């Protein structure tokens, strides 16, 4: 599998941040004013301490856990002997409809992200979808664009997505639906652009691995021909699945994946915050508060004493459980692990074999997961050094009033440095909101340019996961994708200009 080249780039980014801390003073924006905090220069030992500390941050750890848990699930799936058969069956049944399937998947993922915004939890299904796309004959960049790229399209046109739009509107203290017409237009235009770009999708003929190996040996003296064949061999993914003949049905796989999807929708959809549905919260409270009288036995110096006490029985037995609508990465990680265990038992695997397959799958996903974690260290460096608000202040104060050009620069640079929309909004938005500008414009500007930036920035966690999982080099991705990113950027700017003129 090819290396993405992102590790080296992130190292340079971190070193760049270190240099900036020796040039630019730290500052903090609070209550409408920027407070200068002096130089927060990062030294030699500080550099490594920040890296180690970032890997202990609970939010980052949850991302690592969900990705590795998905790896464990697929580690079992590929050993069932029916996973590959299911992939091939779907691909064969859709013969002649490959492009429709590709567009359907891309649009579905974009809409799910725009409305529900499940983040990395959606990755549970992406290896399955990617394998179908590859089996249909599309190349890896197309598969990455139709899945991970579609997630970013959904971010650009986020309508009700709680992690994106909800975070931004929460900081600005406005309704979630603020500027919804502009968001819908942005979403539709972005999806149409993606569809048009996917019409240029490359199809590749996947050859037999054994035959490919023979070609490599035969063409070993021809360097160019050898590279072509090796690229063909590299079209496989880490969870391609084994073709094993057995008597079992594909039904358990379909059932388990369907149940996971139902649990994802029920558990991770913000029912109360976004849709005003509180039935799950009330039901969870009722379960946690349900009490029964049980006998209590206490050993004292005088002997056994008995009494009856009301106990919240389900709360005691289940521990701390969270209502549907409040689930997050750690909860879906548990679901993935339980699903892996049930799948293994359904296909008559021994417990030792199940755990071995889970471990192998988790180890395969460890490298992409660690790369994503490493990218999140950029946030830790930027947030702790606090040099960016000083740069942003100088850019935002150029000229009089709100300047779209310089606000665009601040948003793009801030997005690349703060990686996650949660940190982008919290560390940048209050400072930008101090300008005399509509909240709708700020919402559109931040969410659209953040999404576009994540299409090309080496610090994009979603992009890094996609490239690392599929074995696509960052250079190769940029070479193919830059026209799409440029068009999306132009669309975002035009929508923001229209919003400025209308509002």
Structure commentary:
With 503 residues, this protein is mainly alpha-helical. It is 68% helix and 6% strand. The chain is built from 23 helices and four strands. The strands form two sheets. It has a two-stranded antiparallel sheet.
Question: What's a quick, concise take on this entry?
Answer:
By secondary structure, this protein is mainly alpha-helical. Helices cover 68% and strands 6% of the residues.
Provide tags for this entry.
single chain; 503 residues; mainly alpha; two-stranded antiparallel sheet; 23 helices; 6% strand; globular
- Count of individual helical segments: 23
Strand order of the largest sheet: 1-2
Give the amount of beta strand, in percent.
5-15%
What is the first-to-last residue Cα distance? Answer: 50 Å
Helix content: 55-70%
H/E series: HEEHHHHHHHHHHHHHEEHHHHHHHHH
Secondary structure category: mainly alpha
Largest sheet geometry: 2 strands, antiparallel
**How large, in whole angstroms, is the Cα Rg?**
25 Å
Low-confidence stretches: 207-221, 223-233
Q: Say how many strands there are.
A: 4
Shape: globular
Mean pLDDT across all amino acids: 87
